[in-house]
Amino acid sequence: MKQVIVVNEELNLPRGKLAAQVAHASVASLVSSEAEQQQSWFNVGMPKIVLAGENLSQLQELYEKCQELKIPAYLVQDAGKTVVEAGTVTCLGIGPATPEDIDKITGTLKLLK
Fold first, then answer.
1. Does domain 2-106 have CATH number 3.40.1490.10?
2. 2, 3, 35, 82 - which has most CB atoms within 10 Å?
3. What are residue 76's DSSP bridge partners?
4. In a 3-state reduction of DSSP, which class is residue 113?
5. Cβ neighbours of residue 52 under 8 Å, at least 6 residues apart?
6. What are the residue ranges spanned by the domains of the chain?
7. What is the mean pLDDT of residues 56-77?
């Protein structure tokens, strides 16, 4: 089991804002998953990977693939109190799910640098 967070790199978020948005994506995606998936993920140490997404369009496309494959996912929309406008999609949380299932969706993406 693993979880993947895809960051909307088009936004060039400051590090602190980026960290908060990744945390939102991780928690929200976890909450949208089944209890069995959650427990399996906890049991293996809650592995997660943060990947770079090109833009909003790519995050939406990945989210739709998750919906088709019935993989838990959550698009984070910012509240707009600091860096970006309200409703801006900053991250996509995917999983927890099996690495094989998640890799079908995100296998070609690069690690966030």
1. yes
2. 3
3. 91
4. coil
5. 6, 7, 9, 109, 110, 111, 112, 113
6. 2-106
7. 98
